TrEMBL record, chains A, C:
Origin species: Patulibacter medicamentivorans
Domain Acyl-CoA dehydrogenase/oxidase C-terminal: 233-381
Top-level taxon: Bacteria
GO molecular function annotation: flavin adenine dinucleotide binding; oxidoreductase activity, acting on the CH-CH group of donors
UniProt domain Acyl-CoA oxidase/dehydrogenase middle: residue ranges: 122-219
Cofactor(s) the protein needs: FAD
Domain Acyl-CoA dehydrogenase/oxidase N-terminal residue range list: 6-117
Family that this chain belongs to: Belongs to the acyl-CoA dehydrogenase family.
Name the record gives this protein: Acyl-CoA dehydrogenase domain protein
One cellular component (GO) term of this entry: plasma membrane
Gene3D superfamilies in alphabetical order: Acyl-CoA dehydrogenase/oxidase, N-terminal domain, Butyryl-CoA Dehydrogenase, subunit A, domain 2, Butyryl-CoA Dehydrogenase, subunit A, domain 3
Keywords: FAD, Flavoprotein, Oxidoreductase
UniProtKB/TrEMBL annotation, chains B, D:
Protein's UniProt name: Acyl-CoA dehydrogenase domain protein
Family under the similarity heading: Belongs to the acyl-CoA dehydrogenase family.
InterPro entries: AcylCo_DH-like_C (IPR036250), AcylCo_DH/oxidase_C (IPR009075), AcylCoA_DH/ox_N (IPR013786), AcylCoA_DH/ox_N_sf (IPR037069), AcylCoA_DH/oxidase_NM_dom_sf (IPR009100)
Xref: Pfam families: Acyl-CoA_dh_1, Acyl-CoA_dh_N
Residue stretches making up the Acyl-CoA dehydrogenase/oxidase C-terminal domain: 188-326
Source organism superkingdom: Bacteria
Domain Acyl-CoA dehydrogenase/oxidase N-terminal: start-end pairs: 6-116
Record-annotated membrane-spanning stretches: none
Length: 386, 336, 386, 336
């Protein structure tokens, strides 16, 4: 056991703290488009300091950070109260996927504009009738000369209104395969230019009132064959690479954000009773202690998972448990907040009210809690699929 | 021992449900919610039908019926997330009628019964957005020494946009502790039961919508409702709703039977159960709808948002559980 | 709504209270066999007062009580701190099943000795590999002349060591049907004389240390054809009648017992803090309030279920929910008790320690909680079986 | 940052596991439990190997290793439900070494380190059956003003038959409140961590036994482990165990790193997590075994019973959560 950082890691952490303190962004504008531009500017600032893609290899313009350093970066980003860069999908998902599967031409064209926030990305995986079931993808791509002609609908495409590119999975095999035993075989992974004719983006408003996601409609959109990633019919494998990258660094960011929310809640709960820096209501204290315990466990689980990956090349059970525990903990936190903060958590426009509503999505987005439990039972405990 | 509404009571409930299915569909709720404007036409119609005064004494312009009938109507209004200022007005009527002075009864009940005057009830020291509280209406703060009545224009209520946009809310900041009992004449207890009844209606609707959805929606080639995890979560929702339902029904009956000794305990049990179920069931409804359930379009959020307010209005589950514990002790001492 | 008793019901309740006060049994002996005889004597006392089978029709020697009166009987039995009669299986299960399905000869021979506690019953449904799955029954009965020759094993047969008769379900059809699509077709319901050669009863000790249940081994046991109940191949239907009777009255008894346990716990919790008749620890108070709420809900659900049966001839969702809620509540109660009572709940032989261990069986016996939830989802909510 | 045992620590754990698989199988545990007699031969063997003194200073006859190594051994003994008086003796060694006077160290540590003297630790005002507490051994009552040491023959401990029959317990009734912190030198904190570690071992075994069982056992023609409800319950067991594990590992590391400022909080987190998991996981193991799990024959009950005692020994989950809340406040104040 050694739960301290190496001198190099400590130096990196201190470098980041100093840099974040000096470069903390201003408060975000209220307007949605302006807020996006503000986060884009933040990414450019990070890029200027070589911090936009710390985990990217140096050959692609990154810093070549180790997994631990990447974790430290996301912890410090969260701790500084700074936002994620604008194109987190490009930086965490599209970029690493292209590095593995992309052609030289694709890498040369697409990677540099991710880092410098000149072109951003969205993800076209989910469909209205597919949900968590990748094999049910119905969006069709039919070869026509040197192009593929694509028609279909995608949902939950966050950032689509700002994206130049889309990671698109479509069915190039027999449509009858959808949902069948060969359902994963006929899938192909494309890079879609969002400015192509036939692409339509419609905002999908959430229960928070914010259009955080979009629906994406594709009507006979032409994609050149050169935009296929990883070969025709290989889309399932390529998409898995994308999905595997999804939560690596984010787990650290989310865990620190949870810690910050909890600290704000504890501070208020202690102040509210207000005698001597303790929480006067033992029932609230009991709940807050449990939140504190879970949040600390999430931090430790994230680091334990990293040790497993660094030493054995594969994650332990920590990763699969983390998403589930995080979403549940965040949902409990906002409910305790509703009790402690009263009105503030129930009045439109107040940050805690937004959190109360937004947290309901935590156990759905990025794989529902039900799916996470299946994964833990089947892949970690080895229980039979049926 | 007959644990169901009487024929007359069932008729009241059925009529309310049919009227609101027509007049407070999700399309209409959406129109009101998105505009943040209550449905004045619907409210006028309900006033004409005498709903606001259903449990107000006939001497003061009401129908003189009981908490059972009022709760049945509140449940239907909750089920429909009806965009009208019914709840606050009915609650104020109960507290004024049972806990206030004769003079206050004469002064305020006729207006509340006709719905001409809007009302709202809250606890001192509470910071919850209060449905119906506005400077144009009567604001009742039900304190330990009985209700304080704040007349229209008193400025005690400040309008706020609560997360439930289907009716108006006000913030009422009055210091003091919430009373341990339920009002000198049981008015606050009765009001608490009626909030719980509205909440049960909201949850019943959320459960039904969820069951319909998971029967219909397919994933991995089968209805999601055939997955055992979904089944068990739906079963848990039903259990939560049923537990709240029987405790609310019992409390309403205790209120109308005039069993003052048991009223506070019964009311606390009803609200504790409904408040706990309120958060769990409305959240689980979204969960079992998956991504769709998290969209503005899916209409579940009207239910979720009203449930969040009702769950804390006149005290949340934790507040009422502390009260219940006090009632449990003498009960045990008598039994052991 | 009318939650009061009729004058007749109140009179019956008062009659019972008076009778129980005058006839309260002595404390049970420690020895297991002696305790059984004590409960048998108690049943004889009840029978002498016409109270052994209040729900039995008068033609069979019962009191012909309505469902509500039967409920009142079990509530008052529990409230008096009195035990269930010794042959609760005969009174609640075997008797009512024979009344529906038995031949005149069977009724004449078997019913009278149930009421007067001269002969008692056990239930041979469960098997080691069947558990909750009736269709997997493997015990075989093969016709040989006028007899059936039965070989197999049963488990969870409580009271088998004292029983004269056993409600036995065995497979008279093709053994290959077990677990197959026609699995319920080849079952037959027998009355087995426990004194027959080839019957062996072995105690099955529980985690409490008590042999509350038994294993039953049948080795070429001969059962006359006249002991078939409801016809060859009709065993599934007959057994369902038995199962439907299982919890009718017991729900009221269990609910009242839970109330008594809770009252004892509350009394102690209030005394422990001991200032002014309140529970000083708000966390304990919160938990106890929830137990109180659940126990009250169980009482109301039981009565609501009875209204549904009396008015519409079929139970509402209350029955299926009750078992699940009761077992969970009882398990929570014993854990709170372990916190409140300290040592007493963790020392062998102390009543609360027995309860702590015994409660673990609540969510398994009589259909596991998982099965109860399936039933609620499928039969009450109508969710698809697959 | 390396979140796993070092090679040496892994070697200690592996050796312990192998030895106990041989010497404390369920057959052997059953023999001891049914006779209510600890396994003296096994205890002699463990004493020869120096286990009781693993974390006692070399100056006092121990091996001078840390809480990490001791916790690794305690975890294995828990996993094996070993019928030996190890836990109490090791806990007493920790408290005497870190929280007692030099004189007491010299007087008591050599005997505890060799296992010649048995020990036990409990909190004042607690009524839990204390593993190892007997009139023949040293009984430590870790109070708010430091530990009170009760020498053999003091009569402070009365032998009781706890529900866990695989080792001896005593009832120690000393008035007073449990300390808010974890001993003047962190000895009580370290002892608390080691109880949590034993509990984690018990739960890990319960989880593994359950997973094996549900993979194997068939019902309705398929392994019960293929039912989604069973899968999800098993997943929850794993989560509970993993959460407890990382918090125990962290606390042991904080103890050995000598970070006194963080020790009490880390110990409280570890014990709160392990105690909560202790009840849930051991109960769920029985549940997922179905009827079999409820039988004496199935061996799960040895795990369940030890888990019940460990869950409340040196404070249950609720006690430690109240402590955690106190540590959370200054932490938040510093951060906000």
């Amino acid at each position: 056991m050694d739960l301290t950082f190496t001198p190099e890691q400590t130096a990196f952490q201190e470098e980041l703290r100093t840099w974040f303190a000096a470069n903390r962004p201003t408060d975000p504008p209220d307007d949605e488009d302006a807020a996006y531009q503000w986060r884009r500017q933040w990414q450019k600032t990070l890029h200027g300091a070589g911090l936009a893609g710390v985990h990217w290899p140096k050959e692609y313009g990154g810093r070549g950070a180790t997994l631990s350093e990447t974790a430290i970066f996301f912890e410090e980003l969260g701790r500084a109260g700074a936002p994620l860069p604008a194109d987190v999908l490009g930086l965490l998902l599209a970029g690493p996927t292209l590095m593995v599967w992309g052609s030289q031409e694709q890498k040369d064209r697409l990677l540099p504009t991710i880092l410098d926030a000149e072109e951003s990305w969205c993800q076209g995986f989910s469909e209205p009738d597919a949900g968590s079931d990748f094999g049910a993808v119905k969006t069709r791509a039919v070869k026509d000369g040197d192009d593929w002609v694509v028609t279909g609908q995608k949902v939950w495409t966050s950032g689509a209104q700002y994206a130049k590119w889309c990671m698109l999975v479509a069915r190039t095999g027999d449509p009858a395969e959808a949902g069948g035993p060969a359902k994963h075989k006929g899938l192909t992974y494309f890079v879609l230019d969002m400015e192509s004719p036939g692409v339509e983006v419609r905002p999908l408003v959430q229960i928070t009132g914010s259009p955080e996601f979009n629906e994406l409609f594709l009507d006979e959109v032409r994609i050149p064959d050169s935009a296929v990633v990883g070969g025709v019919g290989n889309g399932w494998k390529v998409a898995l690479t994308t999905l595997m990258n999804e939560r690596a660094g984010l787990a650290f960011f989310l865990q620190v954000r949870l810690r910050q929310q909890l600290d704000a809640l504890v501070d208020r709960a202690a102040g509210a009773g207000g005698t001597d820096g303790v929480i006067d209501d033992p029932v609230v204290a009991d709940k807050i202690a449990d939140l504190h315990l879970r949040t600390e466990a999430l931090r430790l689980l994230a680091w334990k998972g990293l040790t497993a990956i660094e030493r054995y090349g594969q994650p332990g059970p920590e990763g699969s448990l983390g998403k589930w525990l995080w979403s549940e903990t965040n949902q409990q936190l906002v409910e305790v907040a509703a009790d402690v903060f009263g009105s503030e958590a129930l009045i439109d426009g107040e940050p805690w009210a937004y959190e109360l509503l937004r947290a309901r999505g935590n156990s759905i987005e990025g794989g529902t809690t039900e799916i996470q439990k299946n994964i833990v039972a089947e892949r970690v405990l080895g229980l039979p699929r049926v | 021992m007959r644990f169901e509404l009487s024929e007359d009571q069932q008729e009241i409930q059925r009529t309310a449900r049919e009227l609101l299915a027509e007049r407070s569909s999700f399309t209409q709720v959406r129109a009101a919610g998105e505009a943040r404007r209550e449905d004045d036409a619907l409210w006028a119609e309900l006033r004409d039908l005498g709903w606001p005064g259903i449990a107000v004494d006939e001497a003061h312009g009401g129908s003189g019926l009981g908490v059972i009938e009022l709760a049945a109507i509140a449940e239907e209004l909750g089920r429909a997330v009806a965009p009208v200022p019914f709840l606050g007005t009915a609650l104020a009527g109960l507290v004024v009628q049972h806990d206030a002075s004769d003079g206050d009864r004469e002064r305020w009940l006729p207006g509340l019964a006709s719905g001409e005057l809007r009302g709202a009830v809250t606890l001192p020291g509470d910071a919850v957005p209060v449905p119906g509280a506005s400077d144009e209406g009567l604001v009742v703060v039900a304190g330990a020494d009985g209700p304080q009545l704040h007349a229209p224009g008193s400025g005690v209520a400040v309008a706020v946009d609560a997360i439930d946009p289907t009716r108006g809310h006000g913030r009422v900041t009055v210091a003091g502790a919430a009373p341990r009992d339920g009002g000198p004449g049981g008015g606050l207890d009765r009001a608490t039961i009626v909030v719980a009844a509205e909440l049960v209606g909201v949850l019943q609707r959320a459960l039904e919508a969820t069951v319909d959805y998971v029967k219909d929606r397919k994933q991995f080639g089968v209805p999601v409702g055939s997955f055992q995890a979904v089944k068990h979560e739906a079963a848990q929702m039903l259990r939560d709703v049923e537990v709240a339902k029987v405790l609310v029904a019992n409390a309403a009956w205790v209120a109308d039977a005039g069993d003052q000794a048991k009223l506070s305990e019964a009311a606390a049990l009803a609200k504790a159960a409904a408040s706990a179920a309120g958060r769990r069931v409305s959240a689980q409804a979204i969960q079992l709808h998956g991504g769709i359930g998290f969209t503005w379009e899916a209409d579940l959020h009207w239910l979720f948002k009203r449930a969040q307010i009702d769950a804390v209005l006149l005290g949340g589950a934790g507040h009422h559980r502390q009260r219940i514990a006090r009632y449990a002790v003498p009960r045990a001492a008598a039994a052991v």
